[in-house]
Design goal:
This protein has helices spanning about 50-60, 85-95, 100-120, 130-135, 145-160, 170-195, 210-215, 220-235, 245-250, 270-285, and strands spanning about 5-10, 10-15, 20-25, 30, 35-40, 45-50, 65, 75, 260, 265, 295. The protein is α/β, with parallel strands linked by helices. The chain has two domains: about 5-75, Ribosomal Protein L15, Chain: K, domain 2; about 85-295, Up-down Bundle (Four Helix Bundle (Hemerythrin (Met), subunit A)). A four-stranded mixed β-sheet has the order 1-5-7-8, covered by helices on one side.
Length: about 300
Protein backbone atom coordinates (compact mmCIF):
# COMPACT_ATOMS: atom_id res chain seq x y z
CA UNK A 1 0.00 0.00 0.00
CA UNK A 2 1.37 3.44 -0.96
CA UNK A 3 2.48 5.44 2.07
CA UNK A 4 4.70 8.19 0.69
CA UNK A 5 3.75 11.69 -0.49
CA UNK A 6 6.69 13.61 -1.94
CA UNK A 7 6.88 17.42 -2.19
CA UNK A 8 9.72 18.76 -4.35
CA UNK A 9 10.62 22.40 -3.66
CA UNK A 10 14.15 22.69 -5.08
CA UNK A 11 16.18 21.79 -8.13
CA UNK A 12 15.90 18.10 -8.99
CA UNK A 13 15.94 15.65 -11.87
CA UNK A 14 13.61 12.65 -11.85
CA UNK A 15 14.10 9.62 -14.07
CA UNK A 16 13.34 5.94 -14.31
CA UNK A 17 16.23 3.85 -13.02
CA UNK A 18 16.30 0.14 -12.15
CA UNK A 19 12.47 0.00 -11.94
CA UNK A 20 12.41 2.85 -9.42
CA UNK A 21 11.96 6.62 -9.47
CA UNK A 22 15.42 8.13 -9.06
CA UNK A 23 15.46 11.67 -7.64
CA UNK A 24 18.76 13.46 -8.27
CA UNK A 25 19.31 16.57 -6.15
CA UNK A 26 22.28 18.71 -5.18
CA UNK A 27 22.16 17.04 -1.76
CA UNK A 28 22.34 13.56 -3.25
CA UNK A 29 20.18 10.84 -4.79
CA UNK A 30 16.98 9.25 -3.47
CA UNK A 31 15.48 6.08 -4.91
CA UNK A 32 11.70 5.69 -4.55
CA UNK A 33 9.79 2.46 -5.14
CA UNK A 34 6.60 2.98 -7.17
CA UNK A 35 4.52 0.80 -4.86
CA UNK A 36 5.38 3.18 -1.99
CA UNK A 37 4.43 6.36 -3.85
CA UNK A 38 0.96 7.84 -3.35
CA UNK A 39 1.77 11.16 -4.97
CA UNK A 40 4.48 13.57 -6.10
CA UNK A 41 3.88 17.33 -5.93
CA UNK A 42 6.13 19.50 -8.12
CA UNK A 43 6.24 22.75 -6.15
CA UNK A 44 9.01 24.38 -8.19
CA UNK A 45 9.79 25.05 -11.87
CA UNK A 46 13.29 23.63 -11.32
CA UNK A 47 12.29 19.97 -11.70
CA UNK A 48 12.84 17.97 -14.88
CA UNK A 49 11.36 14.53 -15.55
CA UNK A 50 12.02 11.92 -18.20
CA UNK A 51 9.21 10.80 -20.49
CA UNK A 52 9.87 7.19 -19.43
CA UNK A 53 9.18 8.15 -15.81
CA UNK A 54 5.98 10.00 -16.72
CA UNK A 55 4.72 6.92 -18.55
CA UNK A 56 5.59 4.74 -15.58
CA UNK A 57 3.80 7.11 -13.18
CA UNK A 58 0.66 6.75 -15.31
CA UNK A 59 0.98 2.97 -15.37
CA UNK A 60 1.60 2.67 -11.63
CA UNK A 61 -1.24 5.12 -10.79
CA UNK A 62 1.08 7.56 -9.05
CA UNK A 63 -0.56 10.97 -8.67
CA UNK A 64 1.68 13.67 -10.16
CA UNK A 65 0.62 17.24 -9.37
CA UNK A 66 2.09 20.47 -10.76
CA UNK A 67 1.90 23.88 -9.05
CA UNK A 68 1.72 27.44 -10.33
CA UNK A 69 3.86 30.45 -9.40
CA UNK A 70 1.79 30.87 -6.20
CA UNK A 71 2.62 27.28 -5.22
CA UNK A 72 -0.99 26.16 -5.64
CA UNK A 73 -1.81 22.87 -7.43
CA UNK A 74 -2.87 23.56 -11.02
CA UNK A 75 -2.49 20.29 -12.94
CA UNK A 76 -2.30 16.52 -12.65
CA UNK A 77 -1.13 13.59 -14.76
CA UNK A 78 -4.10 11.42 -15.78
CA UNK A 79 -3.78 7.91 -17.31
CA UNK A 80 -5.08 7.80 -20.89
CA UNK A 81 -5.69 4.07 -21.16
CA UNK A 82 -8.30 3.97 -18.44
CA UNK A 83 -10.21 0.84 -17.56
CA UNK A 84 -10.50 -2.15 -19.92
CA UNK A 85 -14.27 -1.58 -19.99
CA UNK A 86 -14.02 2.15 -20.59
CA UNK A 87 -16.77 2.39 -23.23
CA UNK A 88 -19.22 0.38 -21.08
CA UNK A 89 -18.51 2.67 -18.12
CA UNK A 90 -18.99 5.78 -20.25
CA UNK A 91 -22.33 4.49 -21.56
CA UNK A 92 -23.54 3.86 -18.02
CA UNK A 93 -22.42 7.36 -17.07
CA UNK A 94 -24.39 8.90 -19.94
CA UNK A 95 -27.51 6.79 -19.31
CA UNK A 96 -27.72 7.40 -15.56
CA UNK A 97 -31.35 8.34 -14.72
CA UNK A 98 -32.08 11.61 -12.92
CA UNK A 99 -33.66 9.67 -10.04
CA UNK A 100 -30.41 7.80 -9.42
CA UNK A 101 -28.38 11.02 -9.74
CA UNK A 102 -30.54 12.64 -7.07
CA UNK A 103 -30.10 9.69 -4.72
CA UNK A 104 -26.33 9.67 -5.27
CA UNK A 105 -26.21 13.39 -4.55
CA UNK A 106 -28.28 12.80 -1.42
CA UNK A 107 -25.78 10.19 -0.21
CA UNK A 108 -22.77 12.38 -1.00
CA UNK A 109 -24.17 15.43 0.80
CA UNK A 110 -25.46 13.44 3.77
CA UNK A 111 -21.98 11.90 4.06
CA UNK A 112 -20.36 15.32 3.85
CA UNK A 113 -22.56 16.85 6.56
CA UNK A 114 -22.13 13.81 8.82
CA UNK A 115 -18.36 14.07 8.41
CA UNK A 116 -18.54 17.76 9.26
CA UNK A 117 -20.29 16.71 12.46
CA UNK A 118 -17.53 14.17 13.18
CA UNK A 119 -14.87 16.85 12.70
CA UNK A 120 -16.63 19.22 15.11
CA UNK A 121 -17.04 16.39 17.61
CA UNK A 122 -13.30 15.76 17.39
CA UNK A 123 -12.74 19.30 18.69
CA UNK A 124 -15.43 19.04 21.36
CA UNK A 125 -18.02 21.32 19.74
CA UNK A 126 -21.53 20.55 20.98
CA UNK A 127 -22.96 21.76 17.64
CA UNK A 128 -21.84 18.43 16.13
CA UNK A 129 -25.16 16.85 17.13
CA UNK A 130 -27.08 19.42 15.06
CA UNK A 131 -25.04 18.50 11.98
CA UNK A 132 -25.71 14.79 12.52
CA UNK A 133 -29.44 15.61 12.63
CA UNK A 134 -29.16 17.71 9.45
CA UNK A 135 -27.40 14.85 7.65
CA UNK A 136 -30.39 12.62 8.38
CA UNK A 137 -32.73 15.16 6.76
CA UNK A 138 -30.95 15.41 3.40
CA UNK A 139 -33.44 14.40 0.69
CA UNK A 140 -32.69 13.21 -2.88
CA UNK A 141 -31.14 16.13 -4.76
CA UNK A 142 -30.91 18.13 -1.48
CA UNK A 143 -33.88 20.40 -2.41
CA UNK A 144 -33.73 22.14 0.98
CA UNK A 145 -30.07 23.09 0.43
CA UNK A 146 -29.03 21.54 3.73
CA UNK A 147 -25.45 21.45 2.42
CA UNK A 148 -25.20 25.28 2.51
CA UNK A 149 -26.95 25.60 5.87
CA UNK A 150 -24.65 23.02 7.43
CA UNK A 151 -21.56 24.70 5.95
CA UNK A 152 -22.39 28.04 7.61
CA UNK A 153 -22.62 26.46 11.06
CA UNK A 154 -19.67 24.16 10.51
CA UNK A 155 -17.07 26.67 9.33
CA UNK A 156 -18.13 29.22 11.94
CA UNK A 157 -17.29 26.69 14.66
CA UNK A 158 -14.22 25.05 13.13
CA UNK A 159 -12.45 28.25 12.03
CA UNK A 160 -13.57 31.34 14.02
CA UNK A 161 -13.92 34.55 11.95
CA UNK A 162 -13.70 32.43 8.82
CA UNK A 163 -14.98 33.45 5.38
CA UNK A 164 -14.87 30.98 2.52
CA UNK A 165 -14.25 33.84 0.09
CA UNK A 166 -10.44 34.23 0.17
CA UNK A 167 -8.90 37.52 1.23
CA UNK A 168 -5.30 38.66 0.86
CA UNK A 169 -3.18 37.06 3.55
CA UNK A 170 -5.92 34.52 4.33
CA UNK A 171 -3.81 31.56 5.41
CA UNK A 172 -6.72 29.29 6.31
CA UNK A 173 -8.35 29.57 2.88
CA UNK A 174 -4.99 29.12 1.17
CA UNK A 175 -4.47 25.85 3.06
CA UNK A 176 -8.00 24.63 2.33
CA UNK A 177 -7.66 25.43 -1.37
CA UNK A 178 -4.37 23.54 -1.51
CA UNK A 179 -5.81 20.49 0.26
CA UNK A 180 -9.01 20.50 -1.82
CA UNK A 181 -6.96 20.71 -5.04
CA UNK A 182 -4.98 17.61 -4.03
CA UNK A 183 -8.22 15.74 -3.29
CA UNK A 184 -9.71 16.79 -6.62
CA UNK A 185 -6.61 15.69 -8.53
CA UNK A 186 -6.55 12.35 -6.73
CA UNK A 187 -10.20 11.71 -7.51
CA UNK A 188 -9.79 12.72 -11.16
CA UNK A 189 -6.93 10.26 -11.56
CA UNK A 190 -8.91 7.44 -9.91
CA UNK A 191 -11.95 8.18 -12.07
CA UNK A 192 -10.04 8.15 -15.35
CA UNK A 193 -8.26 4.93 -14.32
CA UNK A 194 -11.68 3.30 -13.81
CA UNK A 195 -12.94 4.42 -17.23
CA UNK A 196 -15.06 7.41 -16.20
CA UNK A 197 -15.11 10.72 -18.06
CA UNK A 198 -14.40 13.30 -15.33
CA UNK A 199 -16.32 16.09 -17.12
CA UNK A 200 -19.67 14.24 -16.97
CA UNK A 201 -20.94 15.00 -13.49
CA UNK A 202 -24.00 13.75 -11.68
CA UNK A 203 -24.79 17.21 -10.26
CA UNK A 204 -22.16 19.71 -11.36
CA UNK A 205 -22.58 20.37 -15.09
CA UNK A 206 -20.51 23.44 -15.98
CA UNK A 207 -19.47 23.46 -19.64
CA UNK A 208 -16.17 25.06 -18.60
CA UNK A 209 -15.30 22.45 -15.96
CA UNK A 210 -13.38 19.34 -17.14
CA UNK A 211 -13.76 17.79 -13.67
CA UNK A 212 -17.47 18.04 -12.87
CA UNK A 213 -17.63 14.44 -11.67
CA UNK A 214 -14.61 14.86 -9.40
CA UNK A 215 -16.25 17.98 -7.93
CA UNK A 216 -19.39 15.93 -7.23
CA UNK A 217 -17.61 13.02 -5.58
CA UNK A 218 -15.17 15.12 -3.54
CA UNK A 219 -17.92 16.44 -1.24
CA UNK A 220 -17.77 13.84 1.58
CA UNK A 221 -13.95 14.01 1.46
CA UNK A 222 -13.71 17.74 2.08
CA UNK A 223 -14.17 17.48 5.87
CA UNK A 224 -11.14 15.16 6.01
CA UNK A 225 -9.10 17.91 4.37
CA UNK A 226 -10.61 20.45 6.81
CA UNK A 227 -9.52 18.26 9.73
CA UNK A 228 -6.00 17.97 8.34
CA UNK A 229 -5.78 21.76 7.93
CA UNK A 230 -7.24 22.43 11.39
CA UNK A 231 -4.68 20.13 13.03
CA UNK A 232 -1.84 21.80 11.14
CA UNK A 233 -3.01 25.33 11.96
CA UNK A 234 -3.22 24.37 15.62
CA UNK A 235 0.32 23.00 15.64
CA UNK A 236 1.86 25.63 13.37
CA UNK A 237 4.88 27.35 14.86
CA UNK A 238 5.74 29.92 12.18
CA UNK A 239 4.17 33.37 12.01
CA UNK A 240 3.99 34.13 8.24
CA UNK A 241 0.49 34.68 6.86
CA UNK A 242 1.33 32.87 3.62
CA UNK A 243 1.99 29.22 2.83
CA UNK A 244 5.51 28.14 3.72
CA UNK A 245 7.39 25.15 2.35
CA UNK A 246 6.69 23.29 5.57
CA UNK A 247 2.97 24.12 5.26
CA UNK A 248 2.87 22.68 1.75
CA UNK A 249 4.83 19.61 2.80
CA UNK A 250 2.37 18.93 5.61
CA UNK A 251 -0.63 19.48 3.33
CA UNK A 252 0.81 17.00 0.82
CA UNK A 253 0.78 14.39 3.60
CA UNK A 254 -3.01 14.48 3.30
CA UNK A 255 -2.60 11.96 0.46
CA UNK A 256 -1.26 9.36 2.90
CA UNK A 257 -3.35 10.32 5.94
CA UNK A 258 -5.48 7.62 7.55
CA UNK A 259 -9.26 7.35 7.38
CA UNK A 260 -11.98 4.74 7.71
CA UNK A 261 -13.70 3.27 4.65
CA UNK A 262 -16.07 0.31 4.80
CA UNK A 263 -15.00 -0.40 8.37
CA UNK A 264 -11.28 -0.52 7.55
CA UNK A 265 -8.50 1.92 8.42
CA UNK A 266 -6.57 2.81 5.27
CA UNK A 267 -4.69 5.65 3.57
CA UNK A 268 -6.50 8.32 1.61
CA UNK A 269 -4.84 7.55 -1.73
CA UNK A 270 -5.84 3.88 -1.57
CA UNK A 271 -9.32 4.73 -0.26
CA UNK A 272 -9.97 7.00 -3.26
CA UNK A 273 -9.56 4.00 -5.57
CA UNK A 274 -11.95 1.83 -3.52
CA UNK A 275 -14.40 4.75 -3.38
CA UNK A 276 -14.42 5.06 -7.18
CA UNK A 277 -14.82 1.28 -7.49
CA UNK A 278 -17.91 1.52 -5.29
CA UNK A 279 -19.23 4.43 -7.38
CA UNK A 280 -19.01 2.23 -10.47
CA UNK A 281 -20.95 -0.48 -8.62
CA UNK A 282 -23.55 2.09 -7.53
CA UNK A 283 -24.27 3.22 -11.09
CA UNK A 284 -24.21 -0.34 -12.44
CA UNK A 285 -26.82 -1.35 -9.86
CA UNK A 286 -28.46 2.12 -9.82
CA UNK A 287 -28.29 1.83 -6.04
CA UNK A 288 -26.82 4.79 -4.18
CA UNK A 289 -26.30 2.72 -1.03
CA UNK A 290 -23.48 0.83 -2.77
CA UNK A 291 -21.34 3.99 -2.67
CA UNK A 292 -18.84 3.70 0.19
CA UNK A 293 -18.30 6.85 2.25
CA UNK A 294 -15.10 7.88 4.04
CA UNK A 295 -14.98 8.81 7.72
CA UNK A 296 -12.23 10.48 9.75
CA UNK A 297 -10.42 8.40 12.37
Amino acid sequence: MAWRAVLLTGRARLRLNQQCCLVERDEGEIRLAFEDLAGVVLDTPEVSLSSALLARFAREKVLLVTCDERHLPNGALLPLQGHFRQLATLRRQLALPLKTKKRLWQRLIAGKVANQGRVLARFGHKEASALFAMAERVAPGDPDNIEARAARDYFARLFPDFRRRPREGDLCNAMLNYAYALLRAGLARALVAQGFHPALGIWHDSVDNPFNLADDLVEPWRPLADLHVAHHLGARQSAPDELTTEDRRELARLLVSELRLDGQITTLSWALERFVDSFLLAIEQQRAEALLLPEPV
